[in-house]
Design goal:
It is built from twelve helices and 20 strands. The protein has a ten-stranded mixed sheet with strand order 9-7-5-2-10-1-11-15-19-20, sandwiched between helices. Strands 14, 16, 17 and 18 form a four-stranded mixed sheet that branches. The chain is of the alpha/beta class and 425 residues long. Its EC number is 6.3.4.4. Homodimer. This is Adenylosuccinate synthetase.
């Protein structure tokens, strides 16, 4: 039953929690799926009917016939990468132009943004953030400094606007002493092809679109990219992304009033991972960490980068639940821990001065995790069809997490396929 509110789905850790699969599982309940932030540095991997798909900018509801999919104003879009992603989906039989609408207020990632990304990272030396180099940060920098190029600009006098923005970037690169422009002409040519391709889609004022759909009784799911700990305000700054990945980002990234937010689904793994540089209190550098990485296939969907792996961090998760206002938890990759004798969960931090805290601090660079050990379930759960088939030790693990996080775990994933998803009673 429609409540006149949107539901929000987001990651609670450092990204890569498995949001794409969950959106695809949840979309049958919704008429509209809208992406509210991030760029093509975030990949959602979905597997079903023996096919694997990686979505970078396109909402995960695209696979469900008859759903409206919206790329919101909070997203930054690379026309060439969007074109490649969209054409791949069209080849597999998904009619994108019928199902997808793009906000006029979404900002465009220019070819020069990618060069600026590399130049800024190089200038930081050993303090580099570990970006994907796809131009996300410089695009958001242009946005907040009021120098951005937007999707709506494609509709009038675009060549002039593009040339002015490009010239501005070239001056910045000259000031940085950057000289590596290898492959730029080919990239720019493909980018312009992407601009022409995008003209085949419907550009909309997404704030009006979303609110009109809501008023007409449609059920709407708002989809975030990355994870809460990569939020530019509340994440492990400066090792974060350049947008608001928390629930509030759905309001600014789509034009939705806070009073229109209903359920907030927070996705987490049964353990924890991180890509790129930055602090990670529960990171494992031993064979256990390697085993989690191999069993969980923890490699980036877009970049192929090895993910850093560690035990679940409940101090961090409780913080995420708080800032996001999570109403229900969804736990992914529970099956990855099937073979472990002992499972650990971080329940507090020891600060550099020796004191203990259960609150997420301003800096986490030098905190030490304090663990609670729980017995492993030592049973293959990938074939379970209902929660009644879960081993008792796993049920105890779930109960412990719910108690600590003071939030119900409503969905548990026990494998990559759409069918390997248990919705709890």
């Amino acid at each position: 039953m429609n409540t006149g509110k949107v539901d929000v789905l987001l990651g609670l850790q450092w990204g890569d929690e498995g949001k794409g699969k969950v959106v695809d599982v949840l979309t049958p309940r919704y008429d509209v799926v809208a992406r509210f932030q991030g760029g093509p540095n975030a990949g959602h991997t979905l597997e079903f009917e023996d096919q694997k798909y990686v979505l970078r900018s396109i909402p995960s509801g695209i696979f469900q016939g008859g759903k409206v999919n919206i790329i919101g104003n909070g997203v930054v879009l690379a026309p060439d990468l969007f074109m490649g992603e969209a054409k791949d989906l069209e080849k597999s039989g998904h009619p994108l132009k019928e199902r997808l609408k793009i906000s006029k207020k979404a900002h465009l990632i220019m070819p020069t943004h990618r060069i600026l990304d590399r130049a800024y990272e190089a200038a930081k030396g050993k303090n580099k953030v570990g970006t994907t180099g796809k131009g996300i940060g410089p695009t958001y920098t242009d946005k907040v400094s009021r120098n951005g190029l937007r999707v709506g600009d494609i509709l009038s006098d675009f060549d002039r606007k593009y040339s002015e923005h490009k010239e501005h970037h070239m001056k910045m690169l000259a000031a940085l002493g950057w000289t590596d422009f290898e492959g730029f002409e080919e990239t720019e040519k493909l980018w312009m092809e992407g601009i022409e391709y995008m003209k085949g889609f419907q550009f909309v004022d997404s704030e009006h679109e979303i609110n009109n759909l809501l008023r007409s009784g449609k059920n709407i799911l708002c989809e975030g990219a990355q994870g809460t700990m990569l939020d530019v305000d509340f994440g492990s700054y400066p090792f974060v992304t350049s947008s608001n990945t928390i629930c509030a980002g759905a309001c600014t990234g789509l034009g939705i009033g806070p009073n229109k937010v209903g359920n907030v689904y927070g996705i987490m793994k049964a353990y924890c991972t991180r890509v790129g540089a930055g602090p990670f209190p529960t990171e494992l550098f031993d064979e256990t960490g390697k085993k989690i990485r191999d069993l969980g296939h923890e490699y980036g969907a877009v970049t192929g980068r090895e993910r850093r792996c560690g035990w679940i961090d409940l101090v961090q998760l409780r913080y995420s639940v708080m800032v996001d206002g999570v109403t229900e938890l969804i736990m992914m990759k529970s099956d990855v821990l099937d073979s472990f004798e002992t499972i650990k969960a971080c329940v507090a931090y020891e600060l550099p001065d020796g004191t203990r805290t259960e609150e997420f601090p301003y800096e986490i660079d030098d905190v030490k995790p304090i663990y609670k050990e729980l017995p492993g379930w030592k049973q293959d759960m990938t074939k379970c069809k209902s929660e009644d088939e879960f081993p008792q030790a796993f049920r105890d693990y779930v109960s412990f997490l719910e108690q600590y996080l003071e939030t119900r775990i409503g969905i548990i994933s026990i494998g990559p396929d759409r069918e390997q998803t248990i919705v709890r009673k």
